[in-house]
Amino acid sequence: MPAFSRPTPYARLQDMAATDEHITYYRKGFGLKADVQGELSADYNGWIVDTLRDHDYTLTVEDVTIRLAREFGFCYGVERAVEYAYQTRRKFPERRLLLVGEIIHNPHVNAKLRGMGIEILEPDAEGVFDFSGVRPEDVVILPAFGVTMAAFEALRAKGCVLVDTTCGSVLNVWKRVEAYAREGFTALIHGKHYHEETRATASQVLKYPGGSYLVVRDMSEAGEVCDYIEGRGDREAFLTKYRKAASPGFDPDVHLVRIGVANQTTMLAKESLAIGEAVGDAILRARGEAARATDFRTFDTICSATQERQDAVMALLEEPLTAMVVIGGFNSSNTISLAALCAERVPTYHIEDAAGIDPETGTIHFRRAGVKHVEATESGWLASEGSVRVGVTAGASTPNNKIGETVARILATRGLVLQTA
């Protein structure tokens, strides 16, 4: 294995020329974008979405109107990750290709990669990967979520080629929590402690002696943190509840004194901002204005694409709608956030793909917004007659062809067929 030195993985590791046969780390692709563009377009683009764009994101067929949010589907980070996976297959046609977990949370995209001969490694119940079968001659793709420091170091030690597709927005959060750890602040992360991205983010603080983190899922859990800051918490109960969401050796009496707030990039932006404000106010009430100024930091680290999709949905919800259909993997955090926003205003159906809609029976199989892991099937979700307006959006890991298939099935539920131009 060639000599390797870096102050920080991913963000500061310098890329080398792709022509050097000794290179074992790539972050900028292989210059094969043009070679894979046709394949990517065939696999993921869709004419129905193009038609909607060309008609002000509106499609009316008889008495059914479809309104598509103006920002939806694949974001830049997802496009980049998927494209790099295709480039990797083209660059190493004879090598064994491995992917550390799902590249993004979309079953169709991951199925396409499997069909290309890319083996997807699965983590155990604790989110840990077994790399014992990885060989030096293998090529390993790191997903858009990134991987933990421990996983990265284990793979570097193998000497295999690494192709890093970690999203730039995720890297920005890593830089933020690194700064917190370096300055002696606990990183309070608004996210899901079991999510790949949050695991990777949290691991960044452990590079620094005494680095600490705590992950809170929502405002309710953030409220428990605020209670503890203000002296109303139960130490043992707190440690028991957050044992899987906190850094090793976490001590709330020590580590909830200086706090820096960050977030998983795909969470609800308004909730992340509210959590930051609540924690700052708790420190203010507990120890005064000077303590808030010196012992509290907060930055909005929601990615721009997530924010844009949430903003576009909010704008669409200002219109009269019969229902909202939100398309994306049931394990897709940004899709779950979109569904939660929509459910506040209108009947909302989070479906994984077009197969969730059965035009023959008039049923829809969906995940209930805001209810963890609860799926349902509803008949008559779309009235059989009369004018209806259905809003549609999709998570950042949903390709356009899957959005188009969904639109076609919505129309088919009313016996309508959309003809190509």
Quickly give the CATH architecture of the largest domain.
Answer: 3-Layer(aba) Sandwich
Tell me the total number of β-strands. 17
Tell me the helix content: 25-40%
CATH superfamily of the largest domain: 4-hydroxy-3-methylbut-2-enyl diphosphate reductase, catalytic domain
CATH class of the largest domain: Alpha Beta
User: Order of strands across the widest beta sheet?
Assistant: 1-7-6-4-5
Please mark out the parts with pLDDT under 50 across 5 or more consecutive residues, or reply none: 1-20
How much of the polypeptide forms β-strand, as a percent range? 15-25%
Helix vs. strand class: alpha/beta
Give a written overview of the molecule.
The chain is 39% helix and 17% strand. It contains 15 helices and 17 strands. Helix 6 (168-182) packs parallel to helix 7 (196-204), helix 11 (269-287) packs across helix 12 (289-295) and helix 13 runs parallel beside helix 14 (333-343). The protein is globular and about 65 Å long. The N and C termini lie far apart (56 Å). Residues 1-20 have low confidence and may be disordered.
